[in-house]
Write a structure and sequence with these properties.
Length: 269
């Protein structure tokens, strides 16, 4: 059997999904993608992703790989796969894997985006794609507060109570908070993330942006290492997996946001 490894870029609107990972009797991105690809391959396909997303969370670009001995042109995986998928999930590109590529374990960094819809009136169009905050957010204070989190830290104050990761230590590469008209956007990148880590950071920064907490609060929480003192968890609908960064030899498209990564960024094990 001559198995080939194929790599795909995937985007999806997570509104109607119970997250990425396969669950019995629930609609998940993994299950629908595997069903579609299995039809194209005429055999059972199992996909492996760069990072699992929770219920209601979206992806600008998830990266997955799968192994198959089916002989298909790359554009067939894209066009044929999309013909079998619902409108809220799409395969955006396909390419052969290079060397020992693995969607999860070869990744050096992940990038997430969190979007606040910041005006007095809710959006009719973005009600499931952004988190509404009617109070005016000070994006400059949010950005200033976020810079404390950059570096190698214990993020215990920002992990979910049920997080199963063996270590709370992560390397944060950058966090940028900025405004685009009625949207306040947080772009954040690390070598890996703890469960609910991005949403918990977003919740803390939202309270700082609303003036309910001082700019120094992020530094205080980082020092306390106590999730119970860490504020609210921001809702899932504002969160997007923005992209995944891999070493150059794998030939995976790089989002421009990763130009901010340090040259010594290394894979998280």
């Amino acid at each position: 059997m001559n198995l080939k490894r194929i790599v795909l870029g995937i985007e999806y609107d997570g509104t109607s999904f119970s997250g990425w990972q396969w669950q019995p009797d629930r609609r998940t991105v993994q299950a629908e993608l595997e069903t579609a690809l299995s039809k194209i391959a005429n055999q059972t396909i199992t996909v492996h992703c760069a990072g699992r997303t929770d219920t209601g969370v979206h992806a600008l670009e998830q990266v997955v790989h799968f192994d198959t001995d089916a002989n298909r042109e790359l554009d067939i995986w894209v066009l044929g796969g999309n013909s079998q998928l619902a409108a809220d999930v799409r395969i955006t590109w396909a390419r052969p894997a290079v060397d020992d590529f693995h969607a999860r374990y070869s990744a050096v960094a992940r990038f997430y985006r969190y979007i606040f819809w910041n005006r007095p009136v809710k959006s009719a169009l973005l009600r499931q794609q952004a988190t509404w905050c009617f109070e005016r957010l000070d994006e400059n204070k949010m950005h200033q507060a976020a810079q404390t989190l950059i570096g190698h830290h214990d993020f215990s104050s920002f992990r979910a109570q049920g997080c199963q990761s063996k270590s709370p230590i992560r390397q944060m590469y950058f966090i940028n908070v900025y405004r685009q008209q009625d949207q306040v956007i947080m772009d954040i990148s690390a070598n890996a993330f703890l469960h609910h880590m991005v949403r918990n950071i977003a919740g803390v920064l939202m309270d700082i942006g609303r003036g309910r907490k001082p700019v120094e609060w992020t530094a205080e929480l980082l020092h306390l290492k106590n999730r119970q003192l860490g504020g609210v968890t921001a809702p899932p609908q504002g969160l997007y997996l923005g992209g995944v960064f891999y070493p150059q030899q794998y030939g995976i498209p790089k989002h421009e946001v990763f130009n901010q990564l340090p040259t010594d960024a290394k894979r998280f094990d």
